Automatic annotation (TrEMBL):
The gene is CDH5. The lineage of its organism: Eukaryota, Metazoa, Chordata, Craniata, Vertebrata. One of its GO terms (biological process) is cell migration. GO terms for molecular function: beta-catenin binding; cadherin binding; calcium ion binding. The keyword Repeat applies. This is Cadherin domain-containing protein. GO terms for cellular component: catenin complex. The keyword Nucleus does not apply. The chain crosses the membrane at residues 484-504. Keywords: Calcium, Membrane, Repeat, Signal, Transmembrane, Transmembrane helix. PROSITE patterns: CADHERIN_2.
Amino acid sequence: MVKPWKFLLCQMAMNMFYHVVKASLCLGGHDIFAAVRENSPTGQFIANLNIKGDPGANSIRLCLTGENSNWFFLDGQTIRLNSSSTRPLDRESQGSVIMAALSCYEEDTVQSQYRIMVEILNENDNMPVFMEETIQPIYISELALVNTVVFTVKAKDLDGDTITYVIDQASPDASYFRIDLPNSGKVVLDKPLDYESKNQLEVDIYAVEMNTREKNNVTAMLTVNVLDGDDQYPFFLPCAPISKDQVHSICTNPVYTSNITEDEEDVILNFAPGPIHAEDGDKELQEPLFYTILSGDDHGRFIIDNQTGEIMLTMRVENRLLSPLYRLRIMAAQKNDPRKFTVATALVHVQAENRFPPHFNRTTYKGFVIENSSPATLVATYGNQVLLVQAIDQDFKDGVNPRLVYSLQPNTKLYHITPEGVLVAKTDHLQAFDRHIMEVVAMDQESGEITHATVDVEVLQKGQPVPRSQFGEERLFGEMDAKIAGGIAGVIVIIVLAALFVLVQLLRRRHDRQDPVDRGSVALGKHPNVEVTSPPPTRRRS
């Protein structure tokens, strides 16, 4: 006999989950083995029942029990699937087999019990999915070897399908990678990386089902960050690229220059362009460098700070005429790899002390040009003399510094000033009564010292004489020196140009006769950063 509490439990189970079939037989059943596809609809046929028994039995009851019995219901003599839209039969979550028990009761007594075992057949209802940890941003050194595995991707498919991996050749940087074994997901470097030209790559990889008709697939875009490797050499600044390719900083090292005097010693030299400084070509690494003077230190006269690159003059120069120029070869090398180095040249010019700055002997110069059609005319001053705007340098016994350079501010196309300080006007571009006020700048190419003066030029009418003095500037229209006026107005272009040429040659000869030893140069502490474009001429002090 079934105990009352067990019978009550069976009745409750039948009311909640099962259909009860009443019949007159309880014999002839057997274990049921069947199969059904996952995601099958509600009521899907599972198996038919075939129960036969002794005649005269009062009644029978069929009861489904077991862990998975709620997946079935009885429809007469048929077992059907008890799924729903909210509870589909899913092999991946439920498992490959569901089991239940079919008990047959006659009145309150179990007469037989059978097993129900149903295999869930797989459907291709899942897409491949990349494992997140394998598709995160990847970091690879630019020194990674070609033909080596640089990273691995992995995808999973809940249906258990075989996955193969394919690089999308349309992705931006697909040419850098390849997959030799499609089922492994191992990605091989196919060509060298270069941080300086491209430091981030993007590649798309497919994970594709190989053993299914649908060939379901998924794509992942991987970001590959290229890490800087120690593959570049140092270079001195400023960098002068030798080609239009700015990627690798292939530079021509600068030539550094500095000026010193005979009286200087125990001083740190200032160079132009300066300071002397080199950098590692690998911008992200910036390996520390050390500096060395390879040659030209003149037995310790010049020493270099191997950390900063500063050069110190330790001993004064006894005779600048015997040693007007020192040429130093400086090396900057990586501390961690001295084989990576670069070499630059530093020129040190020894010059006499500059005692006096240049200056103009007046603040304003007055000039005159007579209107005419000549392409070029010398600007005159009072008394129809050639206007000479020239600065005086008392470091020279005659006051003439041949290293002075003159320029006009603002820059104008109407006037030009020669190296000797002579103003030339483009007369055919001028009109009577025009007045032009300009600033003349004189700069010492050695010391960098600058002085200024103003030039005030008036354009006179044809036939109008140039004033004889500063105090007789009234224009005398009727009192014109016919000889001077005819000479200015009547000369042809060739004669004007010839006169200019002769005058310039005479002035140059005058300057060439200057004793080079009388040349002024950079004083201690005066504009030490000015670059000397050529060694100064030798000179004697006055």
